[in-house]
Amino acid sequence: xxxxxxxxxxYIVYFLGIGMTSSCIVLMPFNPVRYSIILSIGLGLxxxxxxxxxxxxxxxxxxxxxxxxxxxxxxxxxxxxGMISGGISHFKESPQYVSYLIPLGILISFxxxxxxxNFKLSRKEKIIMLIGVAIISxxxxxxxxxxxxxxxxxxxxxxxxxKGSH
Length: 166
What we know:
Keywords: Membrane, Transmembrane, Transmembrane helix. The chain is mainly α.
């Protein structure tokens, strides 16, 4: 169980670099067409990297079902990590939206990570890990929601990105 948690943390750090996906997920409400196009490109790049890693680097021979599983899990992993990374980067642009994105991203990416890496966990370990991640996600949701509602933080939707201060 410890190995799964450590590898998950390493994965999170590594994949926070998927900036296209993360920014687009958060900024989607502000310009759906533009950010859908960029998001599609970002997800396509992440998926291509995942398939290349499995088929070329690891020389894994996958059945059609395994390739489909790799595609779905890679996309959900990218989306989940993008929700975390984009939420952290763009909290000020849309604090209420982000208060949902980050906790959901933690749940989605954690489950996808466990499935993608095919960790052999007992039923008890799966339940303990899922409950632990759910509790952490709920705590983060409550904290972020309180921050989003706190008027003294001056968190108006739109944030710095829309003030031309770049």
